[in-house]
Amino acid sequence: MQNLWPSNLLSKNLKIKIYRIIIMSVVLYGCETWSLTLREKRKLRVFDNRVLWRIFGPLRNEVPGESRKLHSEELNDLYCLPNIVRVIKSCRMRWAGHVARMSERKGIYIVLVRKPEGKRLLGRRRRRWEDNIKMDLQEV
Question: Where are the beta strands (DSSP E) in the chain?
Fold first, then answer.
């Protein structure tokens, strides 16, 4: 794909469609069950911005021969779609709705509701999927 982004043979709209349909579907496979940390969110945003920078290319200045890299805000204005972290949150909320409506005999429901037995590991608690859903609900 690295050879495809700088190519002038394809329009920017077609490149964005390829990114949304092919690449985003592969990157976000199973994102409904992820419990993201801040580091992982930052890495996903960096990936998203790098691909968009390659699609849109540098911004041409009024002075001939000069160009500069687009800022993240300018990139978001050009892309006009939610960033990758918002897409993950919406997928996670949609999946939480499905799980809440499942019967109690389903395996996924049992895994999410059940409290594991035994001792917890020492140190800070790991963020669970349920914790992320509660944080997303507070943001909304």
Answer: 59-60, 67-68
